[in-house]
Model the fold of this input.
Amino acid sequence: MNIIEDLIEIFRKFPGVGPRQAERFVYYLLRQKKDYLKKISSLLPHLNEKIQTCRLCQRFYLSENAKNDLCDICLDGNRDSKILMIVGQDVDLQAIERSRNFNGRYFVLGGLVPVLEKNVENRIRLAELKKSLEGRNKKDNLQEIILALDANPEGENTTSIIKKEIEKFTEKNNIKISVLGRGLSTGTELEYSDSETIKNALKNRF
Ligand SMILES: [Zn+2]
Done:
């Protein structure tokens, strides 16, 4: 077993991390004190045990305080249930929440669909989305669905796929579909957008 190479291999598969960076991570860890490494290794098993995905929005949340497999946002009675925002990943949802410009509900797709990808279901939670839309609409009469995906080719591809997939449902139920305005400049990932940009993108949705 080569611990260094095994760890590099693990980090290399993290989102946005290349081989050089993965190597840097491992050498960074090697320079740390024993306690730090112990803390990391004691936290990791809990990721599986104490974090689960919300039945309605599919975001990750700490399951200790959970009721009915629902996260705190889905349980919050002060949020507007008639408006639902579809985001790519949990980090996008966090960016929107930090900006404090949205008070509706969410659905987390769990990824985006690259251009030319044939197997959409492998990349995003399409079946779960449809089920969630049906359920939410029955209960709360949805008025608007906002597609808040990255302003890059993957995000745009995913937006058009979802529009097509839910078109019949939204037409039948008279639900408006909107897309974030390009206060987000082209190529921008939602995750890295500041609050002012998110505010403008929401205001200018079309
Ligand atoms: Zn939820």
